[in-house]
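Section handout, structural biology tutorial.
Before the tutorial, make sure you can parse a SMILES string by hand: atoms, branches in parentheses, ring closures as digits. In the record below the ligand is adenosine-5'-diphosphate, and the chain has 345 residues. In the tutorial you will relate the predicted structure tokens back to the input. Do not try to memorize them.
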Amino acid sequence: MLITWLNIDYTVGSSLTKSSQKTILHNISGCIELKTINGLIGASGSGKTNLLKCLNGFQQKGLSSRSTIVYNKNIVDFKSCFISQFQSNCLHQLLTVNQSLIYSSKLKNSCHSQQIDHQNNVDLLIEQFLLNDIKNSIVGTCSGGELKRLSIAIELTAHSKPYLLCIDEPTTGLDSNAAQLVMNCLYNLTLNHNMSILTSIHQPNTDIFDMFDSIHVLSKGFVIFTGKPQELKDFMSESNITCDTNESPIEVLLKVSANDNNNDSRIKHMIDKTSELNTHRFMAETNNIYYLIARRIRIQYIIQWKTLLAETVFHIMFATIVMFAINDDNWLKSLTTIIATYIIH
Ligand SMILES: Nc1ncnc2c1ncn2[C@@H]1O[C@H](COP(=O)(O)OP(=O)(O)O)[C@@H](O)[C@H]1O
Ligand SMILES: [Mg+2]
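Predicted structure of the complex:
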């Protein structure tokens, strides 16, 4: 397991006026395994972008107190990356593909202590993202699919790669060939790097759908299915949603969920069943409070040991000054003062 999330509820609007509040995500649970490619599927407005943002720590303010996100206990420097749907619109139009990647590599690695061969770093990405034919072309002349691949490659120019790459709608607006190319590049990333991918997509074709190791289907802010793509058809038939042999189950499900006026009992059944299954499936990962505390302390000490050491020295000095100020011969009382000062701090 790389990341697990449990009971994510996300609300927007002012907490002062209940009427202006809107809950966008309801009780969402899920998990991503290491080195896998995962699909977040749902009609437009189902909550995909907001879930990706919540998982990347963008929208902490609107999360409910029970929302929990846990990372793999063996990964200390967990790093995730969110690539917005509109990121490819923000590329510099007058640079070439190669120049865009080189500048990005220089900027993203400017704080890196090691000497980095930027051209070599970029050449590897150019190869992985199939940009070789257009590496000297001006960005402004690139096609939609090329821009999508370039914008993902730019995010990966950092020397320390993210463990989790979240990409919002990388195939939207592309024809099926261009979409397949983008997905192939993403799939290869999971094979060649220690990386998992979570990508939102609103209507995958069968080839893309079958590429996913696992899928999370959303409908109006609720999760209606979590599991392997091959398991979807049986899960749907348990809720009386049937499809012919020539129909794609995900297309049928998206059609039913889009027509749902909040009272289709079949969708309600899928929501309840998925919620029950997910709570059992993912609770074990997140309910071990001792594990969470130990992990937090361990990570805090590894990352912030200088700050923590300085704080401890400061506390001891402060407590000693307090002890002398009180100037009491009673050592027990002085010791209590030191401990009390430390705890209060
Ligand atoms: N700041 C906001 N205020 C009110 N409603 C919002 C806000 N952000 C998103 N929404 C609503 O939340 C729902 C889910 O949005 P989004 O996550 O963007 O869906 P998707 O990415 O699946 O298309 C939509 O109905 C959208 O209108
Ligand atoms: Mg979206």
